[in-house]
Amino acid sequence: MLTLLFDGIAYGMLLFVLSLGLAVTMGLMNFINLAHGAFAMAGGYILVLLMQRAGWPFLACLPAAFVITAAAGALLERTVYRPMYGKPHLDQVLFSIGLTFMAVAAVDFFMGSSPQNVPSAQFPEWLRQRFEFAVGSGLGALTLGMGAYRLFIVAVCVALAVGLQAVLAGTRFGSRLRAAVDDPRVAAGLGIPVDRVFLLTFAVGSGLAGLGGALGADLMGLDPSFPLKYMVYFLIVCAVGGTSSITGPLAAALVLGIADVMGKYYLPKLGAFIVYVLMIAILLWRPQGLFSREGRK
Question: Is 130 helix (H, G, I), strand (E, B) or coil?
Fold first, then answer.
């Protein structure tokens, strides 16, 4: 039970990082980027290529996945995304879905359709360990098993959540971003470089997706269908948690991660269905999301 709970928390934290960029672009930039999963897939493939073919150590591949996907996100924001900012949401959805299918086809062409294996033997020794703890005593004792890799994921995700919340709520850049979203014309008139703020925000969101894809490649699997397979999960996290803060997606990702792991273990035939039932129940209770204010558009 405790082991499943911990695995669910680790999976939820991974979903949080993967969905965070989408929450930022939807909530702060008012842009629906359904191609967000393609950046996560790119991060996973960058990790695999660097480890398998270049022999890079795992820990060096993580920042590389972030930087390369952030650079790709910045390039695409300048060239193809920016003209879509003022378009209706339906146009943005169709546009980003088209980009997703293009990314899937490109990866299938260059890398093949077979699932990619992350060379776990290249992981540091301390990441391959497993810890067992007994909680309680006698017949009621519970065993908590924690893999070091999942602990590492939880630690990285907590650090990212705290850091991003601090940047958005307590820095000049966060204030500029909120001003640029609320009224770009007034913000530009006050001297705020709106285009540059949006470019940096989009690049960081893409980089976070790439980092999440690299972290999750070993746990979630990696193949060209990755963006389509997990797109629903990213959207559920944003819909359930709301996109007006970091807290909402974090809480939603944890709830969904735990429910998914528990459901698949105790009710394997209905495991995946439980997530959707939970999503419907939460949205019936709070249609605006767990941490969004009512009336926010």
Answer: strand
The whole model's pTM is what?
0.87
Burial of 138 from C-beta contacts in 10 A (0-12 / 13-18 / 19+): exposed
pLDDT in tens, 140-183: 667 777 888 889 988 998 898 888 888 888 888 878 877 777 77
Instruction: Dig out the tokens for 66 from the structure.
Output: 């972030």
How many C-beta atoms surround the C-beta of residue 94 within 10 A? 13
**Conformation bin of residue 103: beta by default, left when phi > 0, alpha when psi is -120 to 50:** alpha
Give the residue from 64, 61, 83, 62 showing the smallest Cα distance to 72. 64
What confidence tens digit (pLDDT) does each residue in 238-282 have?
Answer: 888 877 777 888 888 888 888 888 888 888 777 677 888 888 888
Which tokens go with 1? Answer: 């039970």
Give Rg (Cα) of the chain: 20
Beta-bridge mates of residue 130: 147
Residue recorded with tokens 């070993």: 218
Closest CA to 46 of 100, 107, 101, 112: 107
Considering Cα of 123, then 229, then 208, then 73, what sign does the dihedral take?
A: positive
